[in-house]
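Methods — Computational structure assignment.
A single polypeptide chain was analysed. Its primary sequence is given first, followed by the predicted tertiary structure written as structure tokens.
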Amino acid sequence: MATIKEVAKAAGVSVMTASRVARGMEGVRESTRKNVLEVMKKLGYQPNRLARALRNNHSNTIGIVVADVKNSFYMQVNALIEQRLRAKGFSVLVSFSNEDMEMEMSGLSMLWGARVDGIIITPVHRNDTQVSDFLQNHDFPVLQLYRNVYDQIDSLSIDDRYGVKLATRRLLEEGHRRILLLDVNWEGRADGYRAAFAEHGLAVDERFILSFGTNAFVEDEVMENINRLHPTAIVAGTNILGYATITACHKLMMEIPQDMSVIIQDDIPWVSLMDITAISQPMNRIAQESVDIILKKIMDKDEQAKDTVIHKYIRPSLIERASVVSLGSKQ
């Protein structure tokens, strides 16, 4: 494996300059930085991050704990976060909890052992005291992404209540009343559904609000409830539930939107490809704000600012496509 001296010699720069590039530090001309990085890649240079962390108390590494590897939206945002962190000179270590508390705790312990400078996590459980104690008792910044579970820890969340309200309102405007909401077991979405009905002066039939686990395979349950409740429209609260909806309709030989209007929360590529109306979360903004929050907490020398808890919400928007049909005045 190449050394930093060998990198510096091959790149035609000083060891100090090569070292600054390796550590992601500023004060290096961009053309020089690119040249050194290309040499590092060519020579297979790998900095000893743990040794560096022990020397200067910073590893220039951020840990990410992903709640569900099957969630395409999570994975796309994570890729954007990593892209932005690398541009700032930070590496990323990823752990997958798969909505399991033991795996979540194991991942946190692994990241702590790797001496990461901060962690971005999507919590898998409401108010798990073991995780809460771990995060508060270890001295590094933590950002909860998507789910605000722990009040004492920074969070960046999507306003899912508002997103489902937009979707439900759109369907109500087209004359739909038998609207099935496929929810996950986190607060917010069902409240948005109820708020849209209230805006139209309509009572909510609670049978049409269904809650599932965040990573459950529910195609059969969706089919059963379509047959039982005979909805004219479905709001799927996540892209995974959206996929279950499309699959269920396909198995029941139902055409979208002729037989079933559909709106999916999470505007990932396959949703757009199928021309499905969606609730779109701004992925680039989520990634950028996540990076801004975690790096500011790492870099800020003001202890009071570090201790100030931040809770931010981002509002999604409705992307109109071709998966909603008008029923006019029909109920």
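Note: The chain has a mean pLDDT of 89.
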